[in-house]
Amino acid sequence: MIRFDAVSKKFPDGTLAVADFSLTIPSRTTTVLVGSSGSGKTTLLRMINRMVDPTSGSISIDGDDISTLEPVKLRRRIGYVMQNSGLLPHRTVADNIATVPLLSGVKRAQARAEALTLMDTVGLDRALADRYPSQLSGGQQQRVGVARGLAIDPNILLMDEPFGAVDPLVRSELQQELVRIQKDLAKTIVFVTHDIDEAFLLGDQVVLLRTGGQIAQVGSPAEILADPADDFVNTFIGADRGRRALRIEEVSGRQVVVDGTGRLAGILNEGTHT
Amino acid sequence: MNAFAEAFVWIGDPAHWSGPDGIPTRLAEHLGYTGLTVLIAVLIAVTLGLYIGHTGRFRGVSIGATSALRALPTLGLLTFLAIAFGFGIRLALIPTIIVLVVLAIPPLLAGAYSGIESVDPRTVDAARSMGMTEWQILWKVEIPLALPLIIGGVRSAVLQVVATATVAAYISLGGLGRYIIDALPVRDYTKVLVGALLVTLLALVLEGILISIQRLTVPAGVRAIRTTPSLRRQRAYGRNASAASRAS
Prior knowledge:
By secondary structure, chain A is α/β, with parallel strands linked by helices. Chain A has helices at 41-48, 71-76, 93-97, 99-103, 108-121, 138-150, 168-185, 196-202, 221-226, 231-237; strands at residues 2-10, 16-25, 30-34, 56-61, 64-65, 78-81, 156-160, 188-193, 205-210, 214-219, 247-251, 254-258, 264-267. Chain A is built from ten helices and 13 strands. The mean pLDDT of chain A is 91. Chain B has a single domain, classed as MetI-like fold. The longest helix of chain B is centred in the first third of the chain and has 33 residues, at 23-55. The radius of gyration of chain B is 23 Å and the shape is elongated.
């Protein structure tokens, strides 16, 4: 469990990125911080592994105040996946995945074997193990990034818009992959995105942020959809534009679902959902 | 062309390939000054450059100081040091090496800090987020990626020092400068030209060796980008796309 307690962050240039933020992130679930630019979501994420230290307030992991922990040690037990994959360009895929285990003194052969297993986990062909990041596609690089984040089998996995820079098709593939991995591994995932659909897809708990890290609403996707707290939330989730208000219409004998603007959203399947 | 022909005849004369004023001895002395200078200068300037590049501190000061160093006239400084210190004439090697080190520092410093600065800050950020210590970031990420530029600094330092080490002869030391300094007063222009030619040749050979080393130090993963134009475009696209959506 990760707890933010009245956390504020003021950057040296005077920007108040986060003000008086409190939140409990339950273990073994996915919490998505979602908000537009300037909502402080990345700052909040980076506070968890002490890449950013709060100006005031405290953050604890399983009851331990992280300000008392050594940053390097803390980071080595937290997986981190970033937007541009952040791979080391001069190291092969396998070496990239094995970076942290090697730093922590795992033997080379063992680290490599584990890296290959992780490549299976994230759906990467083992044949790519000795390629360099520059020889991979954006989607493949991102998979390597996820594998690297999982390399030390961390309890906590931080993901900073990990699928932001890949094309929509690959993104949805990676999202599905993450849902599958999370079902197997049950990590405490903290995921940052500006994409509300991604948030609803991945999040057990969704935290909607306005500017300055102000929480607009916290809840499960269903709770937020069913009962948006205010106009801001309404706008953010697209309810005001009718995107979330679906209704059924009959077209040539089949029931189709259209949204509030009359745009086709899908076809209603009879019986149980697939 | 006559002068050149005479110079080559001089170089070809076996009599000039032995003894204390023979080409091998002078060449060895010249290489010795160069090597010692570059070694000392690397220790000072590359260390400093790595520090500046990694921390971003003292960058402005170092650029200013470096430009100032570049402006110092070598021969003037050498004369000054030789006279100013009591030991200057007796231990001529000390002022000579100081002068040459001063000359070698600016390119080395610039190569080192610009090399470190050229490393993608997101790569460094990722390394730090994973739990690398600052030392590990420097040794395992920044230096390997900066190495071609660091060696580039060494290259231009070596070139300048080799060319300028001729001044050693000005205050009684050896090296290829001996030929020039000794021959000038007696108007033996063939020998002057021999000195100049040998220095040029040495500089070219060293340059060739260092270019090869520089190529070899480009990390394999980075070389892969440079040799695959389609991938490079793809990456450039990825960078722009991520820059556009980063602002969060």
